[in-house]
Design a protein that fits this description.
- The chain is of the alpha+beta class.
- The protein has helices at residues 2-23, 26-77, 97-111, 146-149, 155-164; strands at residues 80-84, 120-127, 130-140, 178-187.
- The chain has a four-stranded antiparallel β-sheet.
- Helix 2 crosses helix 5.
- The radius of gyration is 20 Å and the shape is globular.
- The structure holds heme C.
């Protein structure tokens, strides 16, 4: 009788343990938090600059500050953080093979009905003989993004972008489209 109870308890513990680890994978939680830190900082600073200087003034800010903010958040969190996209503006944000596959899977999942703002993917991958945890979270196109990533840009905005990014691909987005994704990694 007693052993039966014990076995039952152990079984229950296993089931609960498995569920708990699924729900609270510490790497996933950490990655989510670091992506949030990057997103929050970027959005806060961009909106402040948009209010003060408008879109043309903010383009310069984005081109200089966005990569710096990513560096700062990488230092603070211990995660390599950045942004990427199928249609990128900064050639430095070009997706690698893994990122490309995840971005394409996000488009498929969105087409199948998942909301863009909850799309995420994390997994352990092997890179150069090392184990790396990689994580991506989709970034939906919001209204404030359209002045620099939308279908109809003001001529002065388009001109400023042309000058800084001659090969710019990050235009023509509509509200709710996946603009790109946060991309994070950490060596295990
Ligand atoms: C004032 C113009 C401006 C606004 C507004 C703006 N962006 Fe950008 N965005 C840029 C510039 C310039 C870059 C390239 C800078 C970089 O990351 O190196 C960029 C890059 C990006 C990237 C990285 C991938 C790429 O294309 O190089 C993402 C993702 C992105 N923006 C999303 C957004 C989202 C989402 C919003 C709205 C919340 C937004 N942007 C609003 C100008 C803007």
């Amino acid at each position: 009788m007693r052993t039966k109870h014990l076995a039952l308890l152990a079984g229950l513990g296993l089931v609960l343990g498995a569920q708990y680890s699924l729900a609270a994978d510490p790497l996933l939680l950490e990655a989510r938090q670091s992506a949030k830190a990057l997103g929050g900082k970027l959005k806060g600073e961009v909106m402040k600059s948009m209010k003060a200087k408008g879109p043309v003034g903010t383009i310069d800010f984005c081109s200089k500050r966005a990569p710096k903010i990513a560096e700062e958040v990488s230092e603070q969190t211990g995660w390599q953080v950045g942004r990427t996209s199928l249609k990128y503006r900064n050639p430095g944000n070009k997706p690698d093979t893994w990122e490309l596959a995840v971005l394409e899977s996000f488009e498929q999942r969105k087409a199948a009905g998942e909301p863009a703002k909850t799309l995420e993917h994390g997994e352990v991958v092997a890179e150069n003989g090392k184990k790396v945890y990689r994580y991506m979270k989709a970034i939906p196109t919001g209204k404030p993004c359209l002045s620099c990533h939308g279908e109809k840009l003001k001529p002065e905005v388009a001109a400023a972008l042309d000058q800084l990014y001659p090969g710019d691909n990050a235009r023509g987005f509509k509200l709710g489209d996946i603009r790109g994704a946060f991309t994070l990694s950490k060596e295990l």
